[in-house]
Amino acid sequence: GAAMGLEYLHDKADPPVIYRDLKAANILLDTDFNAKLSDFGLAKLGPVGDKQHVSSRVMGTYGYCAPEYQRTGQLTIKSDVYSFGVVLLELITGRRVIDTTRPKAEQNLVTWAQPVFKEPSRFPELADPSLEGVFPEKALNQAVAVAAMCLQEEATVRPLISDVVTALGFLGTAPDGSISVPNYDDVPPPRQQADQTSGEDPVSAEERERAVAEAMEWGVASRAHSRNPSAANSRNPSTANSRNPSAAHSRNPSAS
């Protein structure tokens, strides 16, 4: 819902609109638990033509603002993607973005989670404790991978919100009530692109990139199916129809 609202602002509006203040408090739920974006007081028209960003006085809510926007005041649609990653991480962990009641090392949610992002085997550590360990692990891993993509320090390597929408569509509930998680065991691992200056273990980096690649593969498969259903079915008949049909509702601000 909230991601689809951002998708409308970024991809359908002309010129695009940067929401600039995405946070949990600005996402409202109607009686059917459909998410609605509220409070557009800080929204700003995005860059047009050859411009890559718009300059603005830094505004927003601490903890949700993208790091490059905080440093430079340069605003892009990828700034909203970062903020969405923070909200998604809050949902996964059951924690607030800033919680001064916790030990100092855990007060900033993103800072606390960043080391875990580098080790896919530790992804279950991020699950909301109230779940008491009862959750589909692969769905959790994919959700964490999407959040990690959105929270990349470098804005240019964050996904577009449209890719996030299609990826998250596969985390919904299937028509029979089961969790819909496609099987991508045949997806080849991505090319190794570990940052050698970061000291990140190459094996952990490859595992993490594979998880990210799987999440993005959801979006690719979804687009292929929506553009040419017959071709998508012929490529992968076992998973072509696994996406929750209810996730493909109308893309407009009132439905987001």
UniProtKB/TrEMBL annotation:
Q: Where is the composition biased (Polar residues)?
A: 227-256
Output the Pfam families linked to this UniProt entry: Pkinase
| Region annotated Disordered, chain positions | 179-256
Q: How does it sit in the membrane?
A: Lipid-anchor
Q: Which residues form the Protein kinase domain?
A: 1-171
Q: What would be an example GO MF term here?
A: ATP binding
GO CC, sorted alphabetically, is:
plasma membrane
Q: Where in the cell is it found?
A: Cell membrane
Q: What is its main location?
A: membrane
> According to the lineage, what is the superkingdom?
Eukaryota
Which keywords describe this protein according to UniProt?
A: ATP-binding, Cell membrane, Kinase, Lipoprotein, Membrane, Nucleotide-binding, Serine/threonine-protein kinase, Transferase
Give the family, as the similarity comment puts it: Belongs to the protein kinase superfamily. Ser/Thr protein kinase family.
Protein name per Swiss-Prot or TrEMBL: Serine/threonine-protein kinase
What's the source species for this entry? Noccaea caerulescens
